Amino acid sequence: MPVIVNLDVMMARRKMSLNELAAKVDVTVSNLSILKTGKAKAIRFSTLEAICQALNCQPGDILEVGP
């Protein structure tokens, strides 16, 4: 079962650009882009927590398990 990353959906709901989120989370734009496109193999809990704080959401809003 693949893990689906809905980071782009949450960013659109919060009207936040990739550059703005990268600055708030203190992660490079390229690393966020890799995560956003679903090409990342892993994510640190600290990074996930920072993304959730910046987007005011829960981890389940960003990550889901597909069929």
TrEMBL record:
<dbReference type="InterPro" id="IPR010982">
    <property type="entry name" value="Lambda_DNA-bd_dom_sf"/>
</dbReference>
<dbReference type="InterPro" id="IPR001387">
    <property type="entry name" value="Cro/C1-type_HTH"/>
</dbReference>
<feature type="domain" description="HTH cro/C1-type">
    <location>
        <begin position="7"/>
        <end position="62"/>
    </location>
</feature>
<protein>
    <submittedName>
        <fullName>Helix-turn-helix transcriptional regulator</fullName>
    </submittedName>
</protein>
<dbReference type="Pfam" id="PF13443">
    <property type="entry name" value="HTH_26"/>
</dbReference>
